[in-house]
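Troubleshooting log. The previous run stalled partway through. Resubmitting the same six chains, unchanged.
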Amino acid sequence: MGAVKTKRMPRAVREQQMLDAAVRTFGQRGYMAASMDEIAELAGVSKPLVYLYLNSKEDLFTACIRREAKALTEAVRSGVRRELPVDRQLWEGLRAFFTHTAQNPDGWAVLHLQARTHGEPFAAEVAAMREELVAFVTQLIVVAAREAHRDPDLAESEVAGLAEALVGAAESLAAWANATPGVTARQAAATLMNFAWAGLGNLMEGRPWSPPQEAEQPVL
Amino acid sequence: MGAVKTKRMPRAVREQQMLDAAVRTFGQRGYMAASMDEIAELAGVSKPLVYLYLNSKEDLFTACIRREAKALTEAVRSGVRRELPVDRQLWEGLRAFFTHTAQNPDGWAVLHLQARTHGEPFAAEVAAMREELVAFVTQLIVVAAREAHRDPDLAESEVAGLAEALVGAAESLAAWANATPGVTARQAAATLMNFAWAGLGNLMEGRPWSPPQEAEQPVL
Amino acid sequence: MGAVKTKRMPRAVREQQMLDAAVRTFGQRGYMAASMDEIAELAGVSKPLVYLYLNSKEDLFTACIRREAKALTEAVRSGVRRELPVDRQLWEGLRAFFTHTAQNPDGWAVLHLQARTHGEPFAAEVAAMREELVAFVTQLIVVAAREAHRDPDLAESEVAGLAEALVGAAESLAAWANATPGVTARQAAATLMNFAWAGLGNLMEGRPWSPPQEAEQPVL
Amino acid sequence: MGAVKTKRMPRAVREQQMLDAAVRTFGQRGYMAASMDEIAELAGVSKPLVYLYLNSKEDLFTACIRREAKALTEAVRSGVRRELPVDRQLWEGLRAFFTHTAQNPDGWAVLHLQARTHGEPFAAEVAAMREELVAFVTQLIVVAAREAHRDPDLAESEVAGLAEALVGAAESLAAWANATPGVTARQAAATLMNFAWAGLGNLMEGRPWSPPQEAEQPVL
DNA sequence: CATGAATGAGTTTTCATTCAT
DNA sequence: CATGAATGAAAACTCATTCAT
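Second attempt completed without errors. Output:
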């Protein structure tokens, strides 16, 4: 059993236990293969209670997605100091992103693998979160362009594509970093930052982007 | 019904019809939500025939993955002229990739979304294909580095990360292009090529990578 | 419907109802021809409940075999007074055996016909019960031999064969008595006792074994 | 494959091949678990041909039972010299019986296990054969009684019971002999003859029935 | 004759979901 | 509040059986 079966806990606490169990189960088994029975047992409560609090499997899954999406976006947001130069902001965002996904593999699996694979109600939920990240990146790019004295003749759709590509690469690298032993969140962030900012062409010429070397708190 | 219910067809033909129906159903509903009943009906045959030819849901799904993976890798392979400079090779590969995924959205959904989300037997199947793409990209990067007179002090793992990031970005952009009306395969390829080769930094400075302007056959 | 459809019964009770229905259905239709649907309906419950309590058709069948085997061996055991002479013990054992099989024809069919015909998992279960009966008979024969001052030059395997033959004859007669109207358990027991103890040769010579004439409680 | 796939054989031969395959499959898998597919493949013919010749699974099974029952009764009949004394006749009959069942285990399984376990149409078929054996034994007993100068105050039903018991014991021992390595048909016959003719009582007193010691053709 | 192609009907099993206590 | 008891609906899979060639 996952949680000790203590009686009479406030509703909010019980709900979090259920969501914990649900995220873990959905993340590992997948949405359809996860059974309400298993989730209830892992949460240490009876099945009807799960239904009383969360209504249905769909609602439960949606609640999981929302909680995990919120946690991820907040992790990224609070990891970025907006007063820094844009490249530093991007760097910090990526670091926060890879750190969070490494620490919450089940939550990340729910968002990245499960939610997108099971139809509109859920995909839309994740799309919202994704859009937030894309918007953050988009805005960084626009600022960078402005600072470089370039008019936004980088068309809207062009920028959207760039941001999309960056976020997509990040998502993909998160799975890769989680699955590849010995790759830390910091390394993953550095690799992507290099790739994204300097580009392969520059890298080939020996002009990479340099991650800052200040002493940072350890990435855990 | 998807296919006209013609009776008594040779086995090979029927099998392809079944795979067509299965790819479509798996791609749209998801592996678990897709029912053999639905697939059989869409293929215009009875369920027992599907089992007679394809054995089980797992085997059917595996057959779908194999067929689509092969189609995709062959599309990319045959789209690249190996005698060109590396950047041009990358460009052609991306174009082939985005063109194929745009033309086979269900097949792409099976590979990108479904197969990876449903456990080892299937994930491994896709991983093999993915590795082929990653290897192609890796090798391009290595060649580029050599041509630029740089020793491979781009460490192995560094290159692996870069290739992974590029492929991930491509995969992600494919979904985005499919979902965003008005974005052609060519545009998606150009965006990603720009991003990957020149890097955001260079883009900001007004030094993008330029897609070749020769008259090409239209992108369908 | 076999049982009145009373709602909300404690699990133990429901399980017995299910076993009753299963024994009857398996006994009359045979293991494979019996459908879980039919058993559930006869038990007055829904199919999922049967699976919830008994897990699978195999487990259900095994549970039937165990219950009926236990009931039969206990009927025989408790029907024999071990302080009597061996021939009287055999007589009482046979009476108990035929009485029980006559009163539980479906249970007997499950043990004698179905369980042996459907492969190892089940056959082994019955074999255990049968061995108990054979052991009981074997031991009676050995005691009888000792009392008659004969060394055990009745070889092990010889005795085993005799016991096997006696048990086999009893099993066969049980079916015959059940199927032949007008043959009581007592008569079946007397016939077999006579046959087994005196032998056809003696019977022909007019020297049968005499069943005891004491006033016994009526059979059934 | 069981039989070499030779083309164009006379119907009678093909039918026997099919029955061979069917007896083997029914005997080993059981009636319900045996599939027409498997039988057809083992017989080396196509399924529709099986249906053309044998009509249905039920008819095929019935044909198996008939063939095997006929073979068994004829083996017993032709193994007994009717001019011998009754005890010798019984002895020869038992020998023939155990020899045949040992040589045709699948046929015996069909008759003894499968046919009785699957409802009236088949059970009746076997019952007919069984009655023939019981009648043979019954008549031996009656003759023996007459020769011993005893009036038939051995009531009809009494004799019927004895014959039934003897046949039942024989059937049971056949299975036991088949399953117990090292027990030959001859030994099984001797054990049963001893048991049946002398009875346990006499055996205990050291007065068994003696199997004749003339040189006989080897068993098997 | 002989067969590859095809299916209607039924099987076991599972799961999200709800009462009655 | 909390839970043991219970189910409707559907899923994967199999099989005896039959045409069309």
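Takeaways: The CA atoms of residues 23 and 64 of chain D lie 6 Å apart. Residues 1-6, 214-220 of chain D have pLDDT under 50 and may be disordered.
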